[in-house]
Amino acid sequence: MQKYIHDTLRNNLRSIISSLTRPQQKAVEEIMRGLFTAGKPILRALAQYDDITKKKQAEKYSYHLGNVNLTVAVDDLAMKRARSFLRKDTIIAYDCTDVAKEYAHKMENINGKGIWVFDRGHDDAQFFADLRQIHNVRFIARLRENRHVILAKTGEKMAVRDIRPGVYPVFLPHRIWRRGIDWSIGLMTLVIDEHLEEKEPIRLLTNLHWQDYGSKRIVSMYLDRWGIENIFRRAKTKFDLEKIRVLKYQKFVNLVSLIQLAVIVSTITFIAIQKSTEMLIIGVLSLYERFLRYRSLTFNVDSFISFMQTSLKPLQKRHERSPPTQLHLFSAPTLLKLA
Description:
The chain has about 350 residues and is an alpha+beta fold. It has helices spanning about 1-15, 20-40, 55-65, 70-85, 105-110, 125-135, 210-215, 215-225, 225-240, 250-275, 280-295, 300-310, 330-339, and strands at about 90-95, 115-120, 140, 150, 155-160, 165-170, 190-195, 200-205.
């Protein structure tokens, strides 16, 4: 079972480290394994060998992390894996920080697949116009309450906070429409729904044909966006993302990328053990279920990561040594009196 998990890590790392030198490849492999065995991104804690000091191993990891660039390769692997799961109505949740200009070209690679879901941080008329007209993306976006729309039926311009719950065909006020461009290209649907009692209604803008989905399903698809928050939480809790101590930016982004890869590999492996009929993988699933009963955990990616962390051991067992005894300046009787 340990060999299967180790092979899974190595196989997914292959495309990431193929362009690196052999010493760099070995260092990245050890860091990746150490992220699981230690569960935290502190370089000394990632040490894999007991015949080399932790300090020496940490220095090696730090040196190589500063001389490679893993972010592009990890992003490409994530997109490649995600593309294989994409269907027409798959929800694609993007966080504010992800929709940067250097990532915009990735939208073009998956045109026609999935429904993109955005939070209020993306409430921008130009962004919505680009999604629809340039990238040909179907999307659902949450609006700020001060967003103004033009009701298609009456031509009245209103803030969405002043519109009652319901479904409305709307236009967005936008400067390009004053240049003589037909307004019909900007016709979208505004869905306002009181999905939670005693809470502000949720206000969603979409270019989907709401008759095909219905307002309740559109709201439900938007709420699936919470899955991306779970990914961030998973990286923080399972790999102590916030405890990174490297001081150089390049080392920092590389270590974050490897944590991202660890989450991706865990998710891929978790899906694989549920679908495969091979005896080895079925054996892994059996041990995982036994682990769940022992730990009283539920069947999900979070508990599977915990299972991998307990199953995947360092390359050689490291014995924690107690700190050396320090000589005291005072005699034992004096120390007792001071205590």
